[in-house]
Specification:
By secondary structure, the chain is mostly helical. It is 66% helix and 0% strand.
Length: 115
């Protein structure tokens, strides 16, 4: 969960923008993201620190990482040492809209609306 977070924190403007957007969905994650931000360079076991909140924090980090991959596919691929990169098949706007959805019913309805 935390591995590519190192890379994303180097893109401060992107990170702050994405974090603000997803904290609107997961406001309780704010204090836990701060813990991760402050300790990302340490080899701490975040599962122990975050406890049951690991799922919420994992969701917001996954959304931030997905958006980072969407916006910076070459840098994301380079970080993971992939030999190539790929672009999403859906338009960026649709992927970003899907990332803002926090329930399956709305997610499925959005997918149906763009088909």
């Amino acid at each position: 969960m935390i591995m590519s977070f190192h890379l994303i924190l180097n893109y401060h403007d992107f990170y702050e923008s994405a974090k603000g957007k997803y904290l609107k969905i997961y406001p309780k994650a704010k204090k836990f993201l701060k813990i991760i931000e402050d300790n990302v360079n340490n080899d701490k076991e975040f599962h122990d620190i975050l406890g049951k909140n690991i799922i919420i924090v994992g969701d917001i980090i996954n959304k931030i990482e997905t958006e980072f991959h969407l916006m910076y596919p070459k840098d994301y691929a380079k970080y993971w040492k992939w030999t190539s990169y790929y672009d999403y098949l859906l338009p960026k706007e649709d992927v970003q809209n899907l990332l803002l959805i926090d329930n399956y019913k709305d997610f499925v309805n959005y997918i149906i609306s763009i088909i």
